[in-house]
Amino acid sequence: GLDIKTMAEKGEADILFWVGCSGALFDRNVRTTIALAKILQRAGVDFAILGEEETCSGDPARRLGNEYLFQMLAQQNIETLNRYKFRRIVTHCPHCFNTLKNEYPQFGGHYEVIHHSQLIAELLQSGRLKPTKPLSGKITYHDSCYLGRYNGIYDAPRDILRAIPGSHLLEMKRSRERGLCCGAGGGHAWMEVRQGRPVNHIRTEEVMSVGAEMVGTACPFCMQMMEDGIRAKQQEETIAALDIAEIVERALE
C-alpha cells in the first residue's frame, strides 16, 4: 500500500533499497522495512526495490560454511544488479551491508553500499528530515557486530538518536568497539545454545543495568535477539526494542 516501485518498473533510481530476507519475510522486521520506506518517501528520495528479483545475499550460507551456495547466490544477485542503473544501495541489515560492500567485489560486483543509519543521518543533517515529536523515555543503543566492529560505523546511529527531540541516550558498559554480540552472528540465529548462558540474555541484563526503557537497534538479527531476551527476562512492559528507522519515523508524525 506504499506504492513503492521496483527497479524493473523504473529502470533506474538514485537509491536501490535492498530489503533483505529478514526485512521481507519476518513480520517484526517488515515493520522496520515499512518505516524506512516511509522515511525515504517523506524525504523525497528517489528509490526503488528489486522486489521478487531479490534473493538472499548469501551471508548465512557463507557463515555456516556452504561456500558453493554463497557464490551461486552472489553471482545471481550481481547479474540482477548489473541490469539496472542506481547510484547507491542501501540496506537496513548489516549482514547484507557487509556482504554486498565487502564480499561481492570478489565476484565483480562493485557497488557503493551504505547502511540505513548512514542514509538517515545524511537526511537529518541536510534538513530533508526534521523530527518534531519528542522521544519519551531513556534509550540505549546496541551496536551490531557487522555494523560496528566489522565496518566501523558507530556514530551515525547515535547521531540519529541524539537528533530526536527529548532523547536521553545512555551507553552500556560494553559499547562501540567493545560492544557485546547479540548472539545471532555466524549462523547462530538458527542454533540452540547448548553450553553456558544465551548471549542475548546477558545483553538484555546490560540494557536493564543502565535503566533504559528502550533499546535501539540497527539490525534485524539484533532486533530478534533483543526481543527474545526481553521476553525471557519478562521485561516486555518496561523495555521496548525498536529499530532506529522506527524511532525516526515515529518522531516525524
Terminal residue distance: 18 Å
Describe the largest sheet: 4 strands, parallel
Radius of gyration: 18 Å
Classification by helices and strands: alpha/beta
Shape type: globular
Which regions contain 5 or more consecutive residues with pLDDT less than 50?
A: none
Helix content: 40-55%
Please trace the helix and strand order, writing H or E for each element: HEHHEHHEHEHEHEHEHEH
Strand residue percentage: 5-15%
Mean pLDDT: 93
Assembly annotation: single chain
Number of strands: 8
Number of helices: 11
Features of the shown structure:
253 residues, 11 helices, alpha/beta, four-stranded parallel β-sheet, 43% helix
How would you describe this protein?
There is one protein chain. With 253 residues, the protein is an alpha/beta fold. It has eleven helices and eight strands. Strands 2-1-3-4 form a four-stranded parallel beta sheet. A four-stranded parallel beta sheet has the order 6-5-7-8, with helices on both faces. Strand 7 (214-217), helix 10 and strand 8 form a beta-alpha-beta unit. Helix 3 crosses helix 11 and helix 9 crosses helix 10. The longest helix is centred in the first third of the chain and has 16 residues, at 27-42. 46% of the residues are buried. The mean pLDDT is 93.
